[in-house]
Design goal:
125 residues; 18% helix; two-stranded antiparallel sheet; 4-stranded mixed sheet; alpha+beta
Length: 125
């Protein structure tokens, strides 16, 4: 889909970072899309108890709709330990980022496990 418009780089440094020459400035910039041009992210579902993960081995859960179908988000400080004790497949739930200076660190809040493991997780916690 074609972007609604492009935002041109404002400074020389931004132009250099993007890699555009002075004559390309009119066509340069970040693509901007309107709400009607986007769609809600639907995560891959849980298959055979396997929780989908990102390249870092955890699962991004910034909003409730990012929890895969067939999974639950267990928000408890001991959730990861409980899943390890049970020996079940789980993924750490990254719910945001904390920034100190220029360094961003992932905020992990609980784990994501299969819905089938709900009772076992509650019993162990």
């Amino acid at each position: 889909m074609e972007p609604l418009r492009y935002a041109a780089p404002r400074t020389r440094l931004e132009r250099e970072e993007v890699g555009y020459e002075d004559e390309d400035i009119e066509s340069a910039g970040m693509a901007l899309y309107a709400d009607f041009q986007t769609e809600l992210y639907i995560p891959p579902p849980v298959m055979n108890g396997g929780i989908p993960r990102n390249k870092f081995g955890n699962l991004d859960v910034y909003v409730e709709s990012m929890i895969p179908a067939g999974a639950i988000h267990v928000r408890h400080p001991l959730a990861a330990k409980a899943a390890q004790v049970l020996g079940i497949n789980f993924a750490d739930a990254v719910t945001g980022f904390e920034f100190k200076g220029r360094q961003g660190t992932a905020v992990v809040n609980g784990v994501v496990v299969s819905e089938d493991q709900r009772v076992a997780m509650v019993a162990v916690i």
